[in-house]
Write a structure and sequence with these properties.
With 304 residues, the chain is an alpha/beta fold. Helix content is 37%, strand content 21%. Strand 8 (140-143), helix 5 (149-163) and strand 9 (175-178) form a beta-alpha-beta unit. This is Phosphonate ABC transporter substrate-binding protein.
């Protein structure tokens, strides 16, 4: 039988226990959704330490969910079957535009310099001879997921502006395809299934390492790609890092406990934080909905 988390029913008990709630509230499990971007087994492995910590913290069974695409996590948050997720900015925008009351924005990953921006990175095999968007005319470009910020939304705006064309297959690019996620894009470029693709990185540190954090760093760490075999062909303007969100209907004390844990994770277990954040970071810090209003407006303008 699942254990239950029962919080104190009086203000005195709440203060004594360090709880943030004075109402009798309970949950029977806690469910964490992990966005696509790498294969399900790797997603589970990267976040297992977080799952175990939160299970111990809350005293209830904590589960990881790895839907096949970004929308699976979004729909889980909207439907109440997922309690927490680290969304991309575009994914949060879709969640908010569908139901503004569904989730609370709580934290954001920070880079080593304290910023919370990252980039969409266009890349190709070094031996392809492709070094720029100009070289991609008539070729196949791969994108991760329609709900990915760096894997589609931002490139779908900035790349047409750079090429003076559109993203429609057969216009500037010979074909435009969705690979299913960041790791899938990297593998597809490596295998020569597509001529180039886009993924995400903080844009800090050395290219040879896959930058400090992001999908390229994770793929480099795991041996999926040798960064010396690929080249950067395009880089977006800075993008606001996506937020960690919690389902708004969760008890307040549960949300406060989880936020406090994640804020302290980097100091408590640097390797766990590295695994969760896909590389070297300065940890997670508080952020609010206001940081994503521009992305929300962009998504709204695109009718999505």
């Amino acid at each position: 039988m699942l254990k239950k988390l029962l919080v104190a029913t009086t203000a005195v008990a709440a203060l004594a226990a360090g709880s943030f709630s004075v109402a009798a509230q309970e949950i029977s499990e806690f469910r964490i959704g992990i966005l696509g971007g790498e294969n399900a087994q790797d997603r589970l492995a990267s976040n297992e330490c977080v799952r175990a910590y939160i299970e111990d913290l809350l005293g209830v069974e904590t589960k990881l969910f790895t839907p096949a695409d970004y929308d699976g996590v979004i729909q889980g948050l909207l439907g109440g079957t997922i309690d927490m997720a680290w969304l991309g900015a575009s994914g949060y925008a879709k969640t908010y535009l569908t139901d503004p009351e569904a989730v609370d924005v709580v934290l954001v990953k920070t880079n080593l310099d304290g910023s919370f921006a990252y980039h969409s990175i266009g890349f190709a095999r070094k031996d392809s001879g492709i070094t720029s968007l100009e070289d991609m005319q008539g070729k196949t470009f791969g994108f991760g997921d329609p709900n990915s910020t760096s894997g589609y939304l931002i490139p779908s705006i900035e790349i047409p502006a750079a090429t003076g064309s559109t993203m429609e297959p057969g216009e500037y690019f010979g074909d435009v395809v969705f690979t299913g996620g960041h790791e899938q894009t990297i593998v597809a470029v490596k295998n020569g299934d597509i001529d180039a693709g886009v993924t995400w990185a903080d844009g800090q540190g050395a290219w040879e390492d896959g930058y400090n954090s992001g999908a390229l760093r994770k793929a480099s760490d795991s041996g999926i790609i040798d960064m010396n075999d690929i080249v950067e062909i395009w880089k977006s303007k800075p993008i606001p890092e996506g937020p960690i969100v919690l389902r708004r209907a969760l008890p307040d004390d549960v949300k406060a406990e989880v936020v406090s844990f994640l804020e302290g994770l980097h100091a408590q277990d640097e390797q766990c934080a590295y695994n969760m954040a896909a590389g070297e970071t300065a940890g997670f810090r508080p952020i609010t909905h206001d940081a994503y209003e521009t992305i929300i407006e962009v998504r709204k303008a695109k009718g999505e």
